[in-house]
Design brief:
Helices cover 66% and strands 4% of the residues. With 186 residues, the chain is mainly alpha-helical. It has five helices and two strands. A hairpin with a 2-residue loop joins strand 1 and strand 2. It has one domain.
């Protein structure tokens, strides 16, 4: 395809006229060369999808549910500890319900997956404490063995690390969402 600029150059070069005029049938025809501004082909940022919005919402539901259960667990009975185990394991369930994160939210998803792994480690340590102690309906006491105490210490340490990670995942998801909204809106 010959552009207007190339056609104009071709006509003036073949006509022999040094002043940009081409000879046609004894009359001088002037040719004009049009220049067009270069166009950018930069793709616009796609706005957030409903699935992405739902995913971010689900990520924000994980920590409050777990924190609420931990803060209400004043007396560590077998039932309380089993309840903690269920809510800790619910992190992975919530992530599955949220569905796969889009590529754009991949960094936040990876942090959330690490958080759920830590919550899972906390659940395993609580289960270990239950198994060692044989706690029935009674309250877990300070007279527990060193092994039981270490298991619970590790459980609470893993819970703390997981909470830090899920907070980072929430922040990263919010940062990504804000950036997408800003770029898609401009």
């Amino acid at each position: 395809m010959i552009t207007a600029l190339a056609a104009g150059s071709l006509a003036s070069g073949c006509g022999g006229g040094g002043n940009g005029a081409a000879q046609t049938g004894g009359t001088a025809a002037t040719t004009s060369t049009a220049t067009t501004a270069p166009t950018t082909t930069e793709a616009a940022v796609e706005p957030l999808t409903d699935d992405e919005r739902a995913w971010v919402t689900q990520i924000h539901r994980i920590r409050p549910a777990i924190d609420k259960r931990f803060h209400h667990a004043r007396n560590l009975t077998r039932a309380t500890m089993q309840s903690l185990i269920r809510v800790l394991r619910n992190c992975n369930t919530t992530l599955r319900q949220a569905g796969p994160a889009s590529e754009r939210f991949g960094p936040a998803a990876r942090i959330a997956q690490r958080a759920c792994a830590r919550y899972g480690a906390s659940a395993r340590q609580i289960q270990k404490a239950i198994d060692i102690s044989g706690v029935g309906g009674e309250t877990y006491t300070a007279s527990a063995s060193d092994t039981e105490k270490r298991a619970l210490d590790r459980a609470f340490a893993a819970y703390g690390k997981a909470t830090d990670l899920i907070l980072r995942a929430e922040e990263k998801a919010d940062e990504i969402r804000s950036q997408i909204e800003a770029e898609a809106g401009s």
